[in-house]
Write a structure and sequence with these properties.
globular; about 45% helix; Rossmann fold; alpha/beta
């Protein structure tokens, strides 16, 4: 039975027909949902703004006011194919601005894409000073904004009368605008409530209930899990792991930011988790958020923590939820708990975490209100962010810890202590260290027998010479090159020379890359087969591989030390002299290409070798990496302008989001699976994961250079028409053939 034509709607009926969503019902639910989220969030605030709850209620009450326009209501009754002729956010902004509640006006203006705007664009008289009014997209023609404003002003009194008739009278009150992180957190509460209720109307499904934290039980189970682990490696390493776990778990420091340096194999994941669980019990944390730079670290950590922290009767995926683009969710509840950061333990990438802090987009900010009151574990912190993004992100982390009851642990085996560098942070600090000094001295002495670093003094002149050099060393061997093409060229040369070879590369689609990874793991388990090599451009940290020897094309100090974590990882080669990582220079010839990102860092690394800095324990990995970061900044003439910080100070939210991007990869998705291409061309329904599994990412300039054809009807989805080798070279098989073809005078037409 349709809703009476006199009952105003907030949403059209679904695609299956039925009744529309009454305006009064939606407003009531969004107000309640916004308040509930904000009240929980603000329990963790040291000094909660007295007027913030009122501003959020006003924003929730009037966020859809413009939908009451008679022409918008006509369209809403048409069904989902309808398009509202008038931008419904303008009415709420107009009313709240006139009432003096500018905080609520900002929230209403931003609750739909494109999100939070630039302050100067709206409040600078030279920019016509629209004060958040008009159409939501600022790039629209000025006349369109003026027409929208005129329409709203002429009918605002009627909108408010209709609103009061079904919702009741709501007095917005006054509220001071609070910008920055507070604005984003408030917007998160409003958007999450709005989106959740709209999803309920569309599907009838409420958001799934997250498992209870039960931190004390999880810590007890983690203690039991760690105690039951069988030893891997020498007795001394087992003793060190036990002592390290106990030291982290029971560390007496109450500081809200701490560091944790420790070589590979000490069990940082479980030790730091135990530390945060203990503080979760004391401080009633909402979540533990584990942030890692790479997806492979997240997947590996998830396996460990699901075994260690899931209690009887619980779903492991709901307790420890992965949020990254390749996560395989077994059910809708798993996905909602992950992408909305509602699970007790959330594993996410540095890209997701830090770009959310910087975002102005309502969809991305929807989960942010879950962060206050959380323990945050920055794993492999040395690789979390490029140096120029740390100044503002450090300020946000300080705000989370100082004002919003968060606790942050920076952990890595090669920890770059950027917080001690006055080029990066406004006021350098010393963070307490979870690794006790006596244990640190002992484990770093042990590192001298586990791993050695050496440099091959003269540049290798050819690929064949490089292959010969690598093949003469004890296996199994790992060779890491600086570019995808260089790795493919070296792998192909190894293969043609008759060597046992594996190639792991982003030139392979995820499905084929996973298959190669499984083969490598199986080969490493075969203790009788040592004479083989893995060539790659994408294995440094987070992968539980253990080789005897590694070669790393010269890149940076941090990358070289991280390779040491893939060599003699558990001390299994100690009895035969330990493992060795060789730093190598390669002449750019025969298909070897240079990575411009290594231009300065490789110079600094070379200087450290010449100065004899790679001597443990006199110089620790953290000292090497921190010193290298400082020198690289100096050689670049400093960090330059703090673009993110400057934009944040100016309340230029779109620029903050743009400058705060962790990865600026201008790539396109290219399908390499012919069957998948056929399915897409036939318009068969495909999940995003299925699409990702059979595709690769290729730089947009390479897409143009190689003249890759777009799939019919898909402007930014392409197909790979050249040779593709699923077992070794991936799409580089076609690239190398094309390269040879063009060197012989051919051309792509």
């Amino acid at each position: 039975m349709p809703v009476s034509p006199t009952v105003p709607l907030a949403h059209s009926a679904g695609e299956g027909g039925g009744v529309g969503d009454p305006y009064a019902r939606h407003i009531q639910r969004v107000r309640a949902g916004t308040q509930a989220r904000a009240e929980v969030m603000l329990t963790y605030a040291a000094s909660p703004p007295s007027d913030l709850l009122g501003a959020l209620d006003a924003a929730a009450a009037f966020h859809d006011l413009g939908k009451l326009d008679v022409q918008n209501q006509t369209e809403l009754r048409r069904g989902r194919e309808a398009r509202l002729p008038w931008d419904h956010i303008d009415a709420g902004v107009a009313h709240l601005g006139q009432s003096g509640n500018w905080m609520a006006a900002w929230l209403v203006r931003a609750h739909h894409a494109p999100g939070l705007p630039c302050y100067a664009l709206h409040f600078d008289p030279d920019e016509l000073g629209r004060k958040l009014r008009g159409r939501r997209r600022d790039e629209r023609d000025l006349k369109e904004h003026q027409i929208q404003i005129r329409r709203t002003d002429e009918r605002l009194a009627q909108y408010l009368a209709d609103h009061e008739a079904v919702v009741g009278k709501v007095e917005p009150g006054n509220a001071r605008v609070r910008h920055g992180l507070t604005m984003r957190l408030a917007l998160s509460c409003l958007v999450d409530a709005d989106h959740a209720d709209t999803a309920w109307f569309d599907t009838g499904c409420e958001l799934p209930q997250a498992p209870l934290p039960r931190w004390d039980e999880r810590l007890a189970q983690l203690d039991e899990y760690v105690g039951s682990l069988t030893s891997e490696g020498a007795e001394a390493r087992v003793r060190d792991r036990i002592e390290f776990y106990a030291a982290c778990r029971d560390a007496g420091t109450e500081a809200s930011m701490v560091a944790c340096e420790g070589p590979v194999g000490l069990g940082k994941t479980t030790a730091v988790t135990a530390h945060l669980l203990r503080h979760a019990i004391k401080g009633s944390f909402r979540h533990l958020i584990i942030v890692a730079p790479y997806t492979n670290i997240i997947s590996q950590t998830a396996k460990v923590l699901r075994c260690a922290l899931t209690l009887s009767g619980e779903s492991p995926e709901e307790v420890v939820a992965e949020h990254h683009h390749r996560a395989d969710f077994s059910g809708r509840s798993d996905r909602e708990l992950a992408v909305l950061w509602r699970a007790p333990i959330i594993l996410t990438t540095a890209v997701q975490f830090f770009e959310t802090l910087a975002s102005n987009h309502p969809g991305q900010l929807r989960k942010l209100h879950e962060v206050p009151g959380s323990g945050i574990f920055l794993d492999e912190a040395h690789a979390a962010l490029p140096a120029h993004l740390w100044p503002q992100n450090w300020r946000w982390l300080r705000e989370l810890t100082d004002s919003l009851s968060c606790r942050v642990v920076f952990a890595s085996g090669s920890l770059a202590r950027f917080w001690e560098n006055d080029e990066i942070v406004d006021t350098p600090v010393k963070l307490p260290e979870l690794l006790p000094p006596a244990l640190a001295a002992r484990v770093f002495r042990g590192e001298r027998s586990r791993i050695h670093y050496a440099t091959v003094g003269r540049p290798v002149e050819s690929v064949n010479q490089l292959v010969d050099l690598i093949a003469r060393t004890p296996g199994p061997r790992l060779a890491i090159l600086n570019t995808v093409q260089s790795a493919a060229v070296v792998a192909r040369t190894f293969h043609k020379a008759g060597h046992r070879i594996f190639h792991l590369s982003t030139a392979l689609c995820p499905r084929d890359r996973d298959a190669v990874t499984e083969k490598v793991i199986s080969q490493l388990d075969d203790k009788d087969a040592r004479d083989w090599t893995l060539v790659t451009s994408c294995v440094e940290s987070g992968v539980d591989f253990s080789f005897r020897t590694a070669f790393r094309e010269r890149f940076s100090t941090a990358s070289l030390i991280q390779v040491g974590g893939r060599v003699n990882r558990h001390g299994e080669f100690d009895a035969s002299g330990g493992g060795c990582v060789f730093d190598i220079l390669i002449d750019p010839d025969g298909g070897i290409t240079e990575n411009p990102a290594a231009k300065i860092s490789r110079v600094v690394l070379g200087k450290q070798f010449r100065d004899g800095r790679f001597t443990y324990p006199e110089v620790t990995p953290a000292q090497l990496v921190s010193d290298a970061m400082a020198e690289e900044i100096g050689r670049r003439g400093g960090l330059g302008r703090d673009a993110v910080g400057k934009a944040e100070a100016q309340r230029d939210y779109p620029t903050v989001a743009d400058e705060g991007r962790v990865i600026r990869a201008d790539t396109r998705l290219v399908v390499v699976d012919p069957f998948l291409r056929e399915q897409i061309e036939q318009h068969r329904p495909l999940g995003f994961r299925t699409l990702l599994e059979g595709s690769v990412q290729i730089w947009v300039n390479k897409v143009s250079l190689l003249k890759l054809p777009p799939l019919p009807g898909r402007r930014e989805l392409y197909f790979w028409p050249y040779e593709y080798d699923p077992e070794m070279l991936g799409y580089m098989a076609g690239v190398l053939c094309l390269r040879q073809f063009m060197e012989q005078g051919g051309a792509i037409i």
